Amino acid sequence: MGRKLSYIIADIATILIVAMFVSCGNEMKEVQDFLAEKNLPIGVASNVNLIHTDSGLVRTILISPVMHDFSNRKEHPYTLFPEGVKIISLDKAGDSIVLTADYTVTYSKTSISEVRGNVVVENLAENSKLMTSQLFWDSKEHYIYTEKDFTLITRYDTIFGKGFESNENLSKVNMKSIKGSVYVEETP
Prior knowledge:
Blueprint: H1 2-23, H2 28-37, E1 43-54, E2 57-70, E3 78-81, E4 85-90, E5 96-101, E6 103-107, E7 112-123, E8 128-138, E9 143-153, E10 158-167, E11 173-175
Antiparallel strand pairs: 1-2, 2-3, 2-4, 3-6, 4-5, 5-7, 6-7, 7-8, 8-9, 9-10, 10-11
């Protein structure tokens, strides 16, 4: 009798376990919708080191301690770098532009990123550096802008201001409300 009872209990446990696995057959779409509804990322990565190549040449390197993937959002999918990011863009000549910030969110539909906290953009070849607290970057148009206070350091000048826009390598600049000395080369 005791042996028969143990077989019945084992059979019931097996049936329950099988029922549990069958009932967990949610489709991926249902899981994604659940995560989106709860405002949870679809994926999280640590110690991220992404390298983007084009025609065998490295074009961009992205380094971040943590990346959250919210691509499951229907309206505005995005990627979040809550602990900072370093992005190195290399041109055909091998010169680099380096962007660092404490926090970044990139919206995949628009290719616009908002970077905040100790934002620095450096053009190493031209020895120029932009520093601000917040910056928007349009990676499709290669355009950056801010309405916050900024400091631009070039080979000859240190310029302070509020409101700045430029191409991402800092070679074509439009500044608002500036102060500081500006080197101007006169042509005869």
